[in-house]
Amino acid sequence: MKYFIRSVKYFFYFAFLTTAIILVLVMIGAVEGSIDTIFEGGYSALWKIAIFFALVAAVYPKFGFVCRKLDTTGSWDDVRNAAVTYFSGKPFKLETETGDEVSFRRRDIISRISKMGEDRITVRRTDDGFVMEGLRKDVITFATGLEYRLPPHNEGQAR
Q1: pTM score over 0.70
Q2: CB-based contacts of 104: which residues, under 8 Å, 6+ apart?
Q3: How far apart are CA 55 and CA 147, in angstroms?
Q4: Calpha distance 6→63 (Å, rounded)
Q5: How far apart are CA 57 and CA 12, in angstroms?
Q6: CB-side exposure of 159: number of CA atoms within 13 Å?
């Protein structure tokens, strides 16, 4: 269900962004204010654009969001404390905390709106270790930073 909701959000996000760009172009006089002159085929092109947005929105969550395993042998308390300390120095704040999971959200409302509320980073304990989940760019960046502060999974490995 989360995947479907993200897809719908991104469909409307793409539609809103395209509409805003077209409105700016019309307002500055770069294009005429008629749909027939803006798009080849006029109104009949809108359904093609909508299908394109739907296709992109349908696959974007698959590539835009990841769940990455953290490379550490630390205990849950070590990982949790390192995550809270690490994210306190970033533009994130602790959102919720349960027994085996902590989640963080961006502090400023502008960033949260620009990411359509999909700014959550979650660190949780699993049977295999620990995982971080969220936007791909954020997870890759923050997982690497967090792993640097934790004991490595392979004790012979230098950090």
Answers
A1: yes
A2: 83, 87, 92, 93, 94, 95, 120, 121, 122, 123
A3: 35
A4: 12
A5: 9
A6: 14
